[in-house]
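Example with several molecule types.
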Amino acid sequence: MQEAAEYQSVFVGAAREKLDDIMSRYPTKRAALLPALWIVQEERDWIPEGAMIEIAELLDITAAQVKGVATFYTMYHKHPVGENFIQVCTTSPCNVCGAENVVKALLKETGCGELGATSPDGKFTITEVECLGACGFATPIMVNDDFLDSVTMETVPEVVARYRDGKATG
Amino acid sequence: MGYPHKSDPKENVVLSEYFGDAGARTYDGWVERGGYKALKTALGMEPNAVTDIVKQSGLRGRGGAGFPTGLKWSFMPKEKTRAHYLCCNADESEPGTFKDREIMRWTPHALIEGCAIGQYAIGAEVCYIYIRGEFTEPIKVMQAALDAAYANGVLGDNAMGSGKKLDMYIHRGAGAYICGEETALMNSIEGRRGNPRIKPPFPAAAGLFGMPTTINNVETLAAVPHIINRGAEWYSGLSLASEKSSGTKLLSVCGNVRKPGNYEVTMGFPLKELIYDLCGGMPEGRTLKAVIPGGSSVPILTREEAEGCILDYEGCVAAGTMLGSGGVIVFDDSVDMVYQIMRLAKFYAHESCAQCTQCREGTAWTVRILERILAGKGTQDDIDLLLDLADQMTGKTICVLSDSCAVPVVSGITKFRDEFDAYISGAREPVLTHG
Ligand SMILES: Cc1cc2nc3c(=O)[nH]c(=O)nc-3n(C[C@H](O)[C@H](O)[C@H](O)COP(=O)(O)O)c2cc1C
Ligand code: FES
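Resulting structure tokens for the full complex:
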């Protein structure tokens, strides 16, 4: 039997100080829940179960309440994702400007093959998302925390190359 | 990052004057451009007098509903025994809309100044700016501007030396369109799922943390400093058609036009001129087929309707639609309306918070039936079923997300029926294999 890896607390040192500062902005502890989940994701790239329990204790709520919130919001990763998580807007305004072709080009160029699957080299995962609020700059995509706009079928290879060797920014 | 186009002489640049001017982003740059004068003026007035100016200006909410802003502020209780809150709605997720993003990216201090004036007018010491989680760059720019505003004493315990306390924080969303709905937004700040609340009570009575709260859109608040600086009369005079619609409006134009982007025009501007002159018309060899003028939640216009539509609250209603958020989605003759309506319905199905049965089930079934039609397996009964479903989804739920899904379906079937019929009769090749 495989022993579960021991959970390492997220909220120690600077991360704890950051959370305390955030908590001082609100009249309730619970209001710091979304920011706390963001801190976990910044530190760990996803939200492990242990972190939900840790947050619950810090904010005086139940782990179920934390989980209920974490699962409501699509940007929190409930599972580990590929090194580069790519989200492509395919809602109508981008759709009529060729967003589905951008998706196809990305699937091919990264080797992911299909949506939601991680590429064989573990470097990429691609999903479609709804409107990213940049419809006049079709097609916007997010790679991790980077927001790239005006991506076309033609510029996809260059974008993928930029991220293939580790995480790039901008 | 996309760079804004040069402004067109037909535009009336008020809010967008400094779009593309990176110097306006810094505190010093903003002050050089006349920034924070309006806040200083407002802090020297009675809070009620500030609200009165906004009332007289005729400013109406730019988030979609067009509710008069000064009137909304006047609903806030005058007693100050409880905390009051201002929430700035920067969740901008309505398909077709991308104006608040540009306000925050280029003129972050304009928004801070507008929020601070709003706070003072309604007696709120704290303002939360709720920014959608995907807006990583606007969040960075806004945070840097907030830090500078605090460092220069604009915000904090003694805002601009007035003795007033004004605090302002960014609250980052995490991917949920529904959090743009004002009561869902408050739940999201409180650390809950973004489920809209039943109204009443209205936010001015019991809003964020149960306290009196006002929620305003980014563009609404960013207009306020200009009104304080130049007067209510100047603003109410900005009107080309109906006097019930005043000021300028940022229109986000996207889809099939040569020059998509944000265009700021005086209320009452003709949609036809916006599309053909300012945006350079259709792509080469294409003609206009349909326009959704106010973000995806408003009825679709045919080419004829669009070409006669006046862009203000009343003009859009007269054309059978709404000004909404001002997200203008343009479709040319190459667009498959059935497919795009399915894609919009899919948006609503994905974004439903799933509290209300009519919305949770209705949005999902709308998508399935549309997919069936696109797969060549639809029947005429499916059209009746879609319309019946739309009826069940309208006016029956806690918020209007459900209604918004029904809108493109009903207007699409009514106005582009032949395209649905072509899939059903087999005259058109199926484009989906599932359904
Ligand atoms: C489903 C739904 C989504 C909404 N999304 C937004 C949004 O992203 N931004 C916004 O300002 N208003 C949005 N609204 C409107 C808000 O509920 C609210 O009316 C508005 O923020 C009030 O500000 P205003 O009076 O300045 O327009 C949305 C409404 C609904 C029903
Ligand atoms: S539809 Fe793609 S960003 Fe809005």
